[in-house]
User: Fold these one by one.
Assistant:
Number 1:
Amino acid sequence: MFARQQWGLLLMLLALTVLGFLISLSSGSAGLGIGEVLRQLLQPDAGLQNQILFDLRIPRSVAAFVTGALLAMSGVIMQVLLRNPLADPYILGISGGAAVAALAAILLGLGAYWISQAAFIGALLSVLIVFGLARSSHRWSATRLILTGVVVSAGWGAIINILLTTSSNNSVYSMLFWLMGDLSQSRVGGFGIAVLASGFLLMMYYGRALNVLSRGDLQAAALGVPVRRLKLILYFTASLLTACAVTIAGSIGFVGLVTPHMLRMIGARDHRILLPASVLLGGSFLMIADSAARTIVAPQQLPVGVVTALIGVPVFLLILRHSNRHVQE
């Protein structure tokens, strides 16, 4: 049985999610207050405000929530898999492969649909490359996986620089927006929601095993956890979650890194609580950040990845300061 405080945490995060949706739906260059949003949701009409809400803001808000939830859950998995507090969804080069494929599609003048498909294929290609190199000589370790991911990321980075420096000005603008994370054209289909739901259910099934694995491979093996098989499941699950998130909104940093640390800092260390809490907080965080990106310099819009970085950097520094103080005490 979970403690009352943990259920209270989930209820507060659920309330934050509802508030985040309302803020996201009411934010933008067109005036649409929370009261009007609620009225349109309960009694929709056929006016302009209804079109803005249902055709533009609701799809974008759903895309922001799903993307944030995918990144936050992937961050939790990566930090368990690699046993590294700095691990985030992009540490193994997934975003680099997606970026190269997406930028190539932009350079070729393809539409938004094909850019998303290219990003997903590029992400999966990077997953297979890192996995194949890390598994050579039949050895598997967190250190080897991180080093392989860092090297592959550097290679993707070099290709990205080549594409940026050899492209026209119009293409470079679109490329930079994609690289910084952008939700302006994002939509989530059934596949993205299915990936989020299936990944969440799978990780909840392994919740107890994740608690044990986070204490070390030897202890997990001694307690009967199939460490090798579980690590493979974690690697490919986190990779698929990240690939789906990158396909929806491009590269958005700090969501997968900061969210798990914030929740652990307030006591959510059991992964059966940490996983749903990360889904709710990650989705809420990205919805609120996207709302800020739409309103700070309205009617212009900032890439949402810029806003998450501006929020994530000081928050992560505060988390580090709190952690160091806790260790000293």
Number 2:
Amino acid sequence: MYAQAEQILGHRFAQPGLLKEALTHRSAMHGQRGVPKGTGSNERLEFIGDRVLGLLVAEWLGERFPGEQEGALGRRLALLVSQPVLADIAEQAGLNAVLTVAPGESRAGVRKRATVLADAMEAVIGALYLDGGLEAARLFVRRSFAPAMDGQPQPPKDAKTALQEWAQGRGLPLPNYVMVSRDGPPHAPDFTISVTVAGQTATGRAGNKRAAEMAAAEDLIGKLSA
């Protein structure tokens, strides 16, 4: 399985343990004795890979669109590193076939879930970075993300604008955003906001209201487009 994963990633690991960790869903670690909680699965590598992916895609966008300003580049970046895009690229690459999950979760189809696939994509990028440096991660990102990069000749609209235009185009009331909760300490708040359009509702969470609204709008667009 790991040989297949190395072929997918185009990299031979000097530290095979990193690859194993990147491909281990947290369900596979449940109940294992002697393993500290939160270790062994790909969650820590996902955290690292998220940052590495953002850097590499930002670098790439700067090269591809030298005349664009920060706002347009930011919208491109947000789309390319979004969960639906990551999940689709992971599935196209075949990462779902090499993920280690608990037997029960496997039967439940966890390998097909967008959240699991997106997390695995970030985790393998983190593993590539730790094992082979930025160049190893860069080679994989540029190869696997090329179709998504080429597929957006114009900067995408932000999710809130796209959702508003979707509603207006159908003669519907504008999206209604409601703050569901505000948790966390003052220096690190956590906002949960819902948005409703055409009788359908989605929620988003983030460290500020605007980002939470964006996340909610993106989630609802996905539901309306399904």
